[in-house]
């Protein structure tokens, strides 16, 4: 974090980069280094980093909160966010995951919230959200990671919708805006040969 000391007290900047396939990659919010998962998820899902949950891990830990509570709250926020978008998180114990985009997690068991996330494409590192210009990773220092450093992977998958959910009949609004009418049954098609 020494290379970022001059940024302490600076309003966080949202830095992005265009990847070789034309998609947007999101860096961690500078000068922070505690949201590489948010940056990796935003990059994988191609949503703005400001739209994903930001549990403020480091600030809450510095404030004296129990790391177990912070961890639980963070995953609860992610579960709600994913559920609202009909997505679910898939954990891959075997890496590399055979996915076009997934998150590789480099685990540091020494302390809370010190693991690091990379954006992966199949079996190669596509993007490291913590590497910004000359700055190095605030947790691991000047180190580049490869697929061999990854302990497990995370990807996202669209949830299957039931027929009732597809028709929005699971929980109708208190005051319906419109009445659902089944589509008319089309008459059978007759083929006429000449």
Quick recap:
This protein has 194 residues and is of the alpha+beta class. The chain is 20% helix and 18% strand.
Overall description:
- The protein is α+β, with helices and mostly antiparallel strands and 194 residues long.
- The protein has one domain.
- It has helices at 36-45, 57-62, 67-84, 163-166; strands at 16-18, 24-26, 87-92, 102-106, 116-121, 124-127, 152-158.
- Strand 1 and strand 2 form a beta hairpin.
Helix and strand arrangement:
Elements lengths: L15 E3 L5 E3 L9 H10 L11 H6 L4 H18 L2 E6 L9 E5 L9 E6 L2 E4 L24 E7 L4 H4 L28
Antiparallel strand pairs: 1-2, 3-7, 4-5, 4-7, 5-6
Discrete helix count = 4
Count of separate structural domains = 1
Cα separation of the termini: 81 Å
Name the helix and strand elements from N-terminus to C-terminus, one letter apiece: EEHHHEEEEEH
Top keywords for this entry?
194 residues; alpha+beta; five-stranded antiparallel sheet; two-stranded antiparallel ribbon; 4 helices; globular; disordered N terminus
């Amino acid at each position: 974090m020494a290379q970022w000391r001059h940024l302490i007290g600076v309003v966080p900047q949202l830095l992005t980069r265009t990847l070789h396939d034309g998609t947007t990659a999101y860096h961690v919010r500078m000068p922070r280094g505690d949201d590489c998962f948010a940056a990796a998820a935003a990059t994988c899902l191609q949503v703005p980093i400001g739209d994903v949950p930001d549990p403020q891990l480091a600030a809450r830990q510095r404030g004296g909160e129990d790391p177990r509570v912070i961890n639980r709250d963070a995953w609860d926020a992610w579960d709600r966010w994913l559920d609202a978008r009909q997505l679910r998180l898939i954990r891959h114990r075997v890496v590399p995951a055979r996915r076009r985009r997934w998150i590789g997690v480099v685990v540091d068991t020494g302390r809370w919230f010190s693991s690091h996330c990379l954006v992966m494409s199949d079996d190669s590192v596509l993007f490291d959200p913590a590497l910004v210009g000359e700055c190095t990773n605030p947790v691991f220092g000047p180190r580049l990671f490869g697929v061999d450093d990854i302990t497990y992977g995370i990807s996202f998958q669209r949830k299957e919708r039931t027929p009732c959910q597809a028709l929005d009949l699971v929980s109708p609004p208190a005051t319906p805006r419109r009445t659902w009418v089944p589509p008319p049954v089309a008459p059978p098609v007759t083929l006429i040969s000449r």
